[in-house]
Amino acid sequence: MLTQFTTWDIVRNLLEGGKWTLLLSLLAFFLGGVTGLIIVLLRISPNRFLRVIAKVWIELFQGTPLLMQLFIVFFGLSLLGWDVSAWTAAAIGLTLFTSAYLAEIWRGCIEAIPSGQWEASASLAFSPLQQMRYVILPQALRIAIPPTVGFSVQVVKGTAVTSIIGFTELTKSGTMIANATFEPFMVFGLVATAYFCLCYPLSVYARHLERKYHVAC
Amino acid sequence: MSLVSIHQLHKHFGDNHVLKGIDLNVDEGQVIALIGRSGSGKSTLLRTINGLECIDAGEITVDGAKIQAGAKDMRPLRLKVGMVFQQFNLFPHLSVGENVMLAPKIVKKTDPAQAQELAEQMLAKVGLSEKFDAFPGELSGGQQQRVAIARALAMQPKVMLCDEITSALDPELVSEVLSVVKQLANEGMTLVMVTHEMRFAREVGDKLVFMHQGRVHEEGPPEALFNAPSTPELAAFIGAIDQA
Ligand SMILES: Nc1ncnc2c1ncn2[C@@H]1O[C@H](COP(=O)(O)OP(=O)(O)O)[C@@H](O)[C@H]1O
Ligand SMILES: [Mg+2]
Predict the structure, then answer these.
(1) Among A94, A149, B1, B225, which is 20 to 30 Å from B234 by CA?
(2) pLDDT for residue B70 is more than 90
(3) In what side-by-side order are the strands of the sheet with B4-13?
């Protein structure tokens, strides 16, 4: 027996999936940001060993497809005896991915601060941490905001990949509904629209910030 | 005992032997004018005196704080030594007042009210009291450099290092900065300044130090050296300056 789906049924199901896309994006962006901050501080630390660790971290997650990272987290952890849900695996995978990219973006911003700022603060007897905290980071933060907001678009789109390990976000919901309604064009059209509605304001905002800070510099 | 004493200081950048056994003493209240060709090692020497460059051999002592090859923590030295740079290097995200107060507050843990008072005093000294709340980007080069001087003074250093502090300025802004330096000299501040302003060096300097190829080639009272250089290198340097 075929169930009849109204358009509202379809939209309602997609919205439910969209909610998880949004939650996953926010979580990955937040946790990835915190991890990324730690990674970038290691990346520029005076200790060579810490720098190498951070570099390997960044290269590893930037140099492999997000999908492979998710597979490895999802299947790898269960091989080790931890039964992780698709949600947990998706959150961990996307956090790692985000941390690597944000660390690299932020490193660029920190390195863009002229060496005279380090020298002036050093000559005033600041400790390295005080230099970071009071002189370098406040200036780097300013220039980091536009590319960081811009990257958030990549995180939202990245969540689509988690459908492959079975996490029911927007794309996965779309696939399931398309299979049930035999209306893939309409369903995926709606799915694409939903992604666009999430991403477009972010990119517009990022461009706006870029202009604003560019003018102010 | 001199306030600053530098003994057999050596510094390399890779294969480039930049400082080749510098000996230099600076007494309290003395004003040293450091001159020499570009590349002779003047900036590098200044930068070793507050630990911006590490040294390969020899030692530097400033008011009891000593640095040798391999020294890690330069902060004891830096607490005694203020530095003013050619490019000002003010903190652009902070107001003028905050630029001056920041180091006393976080390095010396001066309480905010006292730090504010100190900053006001120092800004008054350089004639910029009314710019307390302005941002560096709103100031002329000469004003920025005077703020940089106030910022260094607020740490109450024993000696101030100035590395060509008027070289980045438009000609009409040079004198306002030089007159602040002169005033400091008159108040008894110990100064080591790299300068191309020969007239100023003669007028304010107690001792002229001519560097050549990484060595102190000649030193002595400015008048005597200018009038009768005893080495051909200094004579040639003065000749080149006079023509310019
Ligand atoms: N950070 C550095 N790295 C490598 N070489 C340097 C560095 N700073 C200065 N030098 C070299 O040291 C020599 C002396 O430079 P410097 O002290 O700046 O001379 P001056 O200030 O008298 O013009 C020059 O040959 C210069 O190229
Ligand atoms: Mg120089």
Answers:
(1) B1
(2) no
(3) B16-26, B4-13, B57-62, B65-68
Q: How far is the CA of A118 from the centre of ligand 2 (A)?
A: 18
Tell me the C-alpha to C-alpha distance, in Å, between residue B104 and each of B76, B114, B118, B136, B150. Answer: 15, 9, 9, 19, 12
Question: What is the DSSP code (8-state) at residue B91?
Answer: -
Identify residue B236 by its one-letter amino acid code: A
Domain borders along chain A are 7-213
Q: Could you give the CA distance from residue A173 to residue A193 in angstroms, rounded to a whole number?
A: 14
How far apart, in whole angstroms, are the C-alpha atoms of residue B45 and residue B63?
18
Q: What is the 3-state secondary structure (H, E, C) of B36-53?
A: ECCCCCHHHHHHHHCCCC
**Digit-coded pLDDT (tens) for A63-84:** 999 999 999 999 998 888 888 8
Model-level ipTM above the cut of 0.90? yes
Asked if residues B57 and B1 have their Cβ atoms less than 8 Å apart, the reply is: no
Identity of the amino acid at A165: I
pTM: 0.87
> Coil, helix or strand for A81?
coil
The one-letter amino acid at A69: Q
| CATH code at A7-213 | 1.10.3720.10
* CA pair distance B141, A90, nearest whole angstrom: 53
Pairing mode of beta strands B57-62, B4-13: antiparallel
**pLDDT score, position A3:** 64
Of B51, B75, B85, the CB nearest to A120: B85
Q: For chain B, what percent of residues have pLDDT higher than 90?
A: 94
Give the integer Cα–Cα distance in Å for B19 and B29.
25
B92/A contact by beta carbon, under 8 A: yes
Q: How far apart are CA A129 and CA A138, in angstroms?
A: 13
Q: Which residues of A touch B (CB under 8 A)?
A: 114, 116-117, 119-127, 130, 134-135, 138-139, 142
Is B50 an interface residue toward A (CB < 8 Å)? yes
